[in-house]
Amino acid sequence: MSVRLGDVAPDFTAQTTQGEIKFHEWLGDSWGVLFSHPKDFTPVCTTELGYVAKIKPEFDKRNVKVIGLSVDSVESHEKWESDIGETQGTPVNFPMIGDPDRNVSNLYDMIHPNANDTLTVRSVFVIGPDKKVKLTITYPASTGRNFDEVLRVIDSLQLTAKFKVATPANWKDGSDVIIGAAVSDDEAKTLFPGGWKTVKPYLRVLPQPK
Ligand code: BEZ
Fold first, then answer.
1. Distance 28 CA to ligand 1 centre (A)
2. DSSP label at 202?
């Protein structure tokens, strides 16, 4: 079964490089990013894990816990981590799930047999503090992910959870936003007393609320 937006993220218990975790308990009140990579000791994955480690302070700032996964074992992850530290300049500073029995991979539909029947694809799940899935992304093995984009979407998710706004194409934190389509002009007057610009009746733009 695939995991879709709005679903409760499946809970699980797994062995990780930082000990056994119960996923929902581990998330606590934080946001979460669960991401899979195809295989340990591979080039693209090495760069991805190094980059996530480098920008972990950005996830911390946003109250987001990050956790990786592949179908390799925790022992294999631990051996590989020293290569990542050596080549990417940052030690891996987040837990990595060992999933040789594919328990978590199957729960999250991370193995796509028509792409590869033994390795996980590059999945990303962003999970809110309510444990619901807010974003899913799937990349093929040959393409490393853009984790700055994951941070950008988290900024949008956290903003739109707080205010009745939406974010336009290529939006970045601090840029103008759009009043949600379900908000009437009367409600908008109360919500956004500073006003907005009506480009079309359905396209109302205002500075990002703080
Ligand atoms: C890589 O990370 O480079 C990779 C992993 C599995 C298949 C292909 C590429």
1. 32
2. T
